[in-house]
Amino acid sequence: MELLEGRDVPLGRYSVVRRTLPNKTRRTVGAWCFLDHFGPEEVTGKPGMRVPPHPHIGLQTVTWLFDGEIRHRDSLGSDELIRPGQLNIMTSGRGIAHSEDSPTAKPPLLHGVQLWVALPDAARHREPAFQHLEDLPVAEVPGVRMTVAVGSLGGVTSPAAVHSPLVGAEVTVAARTPAEIAINPAFEHGLVVTDGTARVEGVDVTAGSLLHLPEGRTSLAFEGDARLFLIGGVPLEEELVMWWNFVARSHEEIVAARDEWEAGSSRFGTVPGGQEPLPAPALPTTRLLPRHRFS
After folding, report:
1. The Pirin N-terminal domain covers which part of the protein (predicted)?
2. Which of 90, 92, 130, 243 has its CA 20 to 30 A from that of 75?
3. Is the pTM value of this prediction over 0.70?
4. What is the pLDDT, as a whole number, of residue 70?
C-alpha cells in the first residue's frame, strides 16, 4: 500500500482543488488518470465553479457531487444540471468541448470530485458522447453503504458506459469495528477520503491524500466515520502523454489538438452559452514524452 499526498491546484479563476492523480510516483490507478477533490466550499455570494469552454481528447470525464449543483454544457448540445448522487460521464473520444459552472441560484455548499479515465487505444478516436445518470445502484453491507457510479461493486452494476474494466463508487463508512467489502482481485484500487477519517486496511486516511492498493486483494476492511470515493481497474500498461486537457500517445498528437483548438476547428465544436473559450497554454520548450503508470 502507498499513501499519496495531493497538492493544491487553481481551477479557473475562483476555485482551488486538491489533486491526487497524476502523482509524482503514480500516474494512474487502472485507467483512472486524474482525480481532483474540490470543497467543501461555502459559495453563498460567490461565483462558485466557473470553468469556461475547454477541449478534451482521449479521455472520459467523470463528475460526482456530494453537495451543490453544477451545470454542464458541451459541444454535442448537452445541457444538464448535476446534483449529489447523480453522475455526469462525458466521452471525449477524438474531440469535444464543455463548460462547467455553478448556477446563479445555487445551494450554499459545493463539494465533489472530478476524475478522468484514459481511453484505451482502441476507443480513443471514437465519436464523443455524454451520459447523465440520476438513478444509480446502491449496495450495503453492515457498516458500509456504496453508491456505484461506474462498473460493479457489492453485487450491483452501474449503467455508465466505459471502455475498460473499471470501478468508481461513493463509499460511506459508519463502523466502530472493522467492516469489510469484497473487491475485484484483478484490479488495483485507490481511495480518497472526502469527509471524516477512515482506517483502511490498518492505514489512517484523511482528506487530501490517496491510498493506493495493488491488485491481488479480495476485500477491503474499513473502520471509522467517513465518506470516501473508491476507484479501481486493471493496471494500465499503455504509456500516456498527458498535457493540459488532453490524453494522447505522442507529442505530435498534443500539438495538433492544441493547434486545432486555438484555430477554432470543427473538431471540438462549439459550447452554447456565449462564454469565451479558454485559451490553451503555451507548449513546453521540451518534447512531451510518453509516461508509464509508475513514473
Report:
1. 17-117
2. 243
3. yes
4. 97
